[in-house]
Design a protein that fits this description.
Strands 1-2 form a two-stranded antiparallel sheet. A hairpin with a 3-residue loop joins strand 1 and strand 2. The protein has five helices and two strands. Helices cover 66% and strands 8% of the residues. By secondary structure, it is mainly alpha-helical. InterPro entries: ArnR1-like_HTH (IPR038723), WH-like_DNA-bd_sf (IPR036388), WH_DNA-bd_sf (IPR036390). This is ArnR1-like winged helix-turn-helix domain-containing protein.
């Protein structure tokens, strides 16, 4: 039986950004978790990580929005998931080397 390879953290980041782009904004995190296909508690962790990267704006109980940097990242990737994964990999690696 064929088993699908699990997604990497960066691929999940890309799925979150693409879902937010499609939705415009998100005030229901359970809906976003369902669209991305991750459990709610992991979604919270990923949102905090994306917030630290400066790609989203999120405050609990007020919704999730893409920041200017997040929108520019999507534009540079031309809303292509594979390109977005490459760009997000570079961003996350540059943050790790700085800290």
């Amino acid at each position: 039986m064929y088993r699908k390879k699990p997604r990497t953290r960066v691929e999940i980041y890309a799925d979150i950004l693409l879902s937010l782009d499609k939705m415009g904004s998100c005030d229901k995190l359970s809906r976003l978790a369902m669209m991305v296909g991750v459990p709610y508690d992991r979604l919270i962790r990923y949102l905090n990580e994306l917030k630290n990267l400066g790609l989203i704006r999120w405050e609990p109980y007020s919704g999730v929005y893409l920041t200017r940097k997040g929108l520019e990242t999507l534009i540079n990737a031309q809303s292509n998931r594979d390109n977005l994964v490459l760009i997000l990999t570079e961003i996350s690696q540059s943050v790790k080397t700085v800290t």
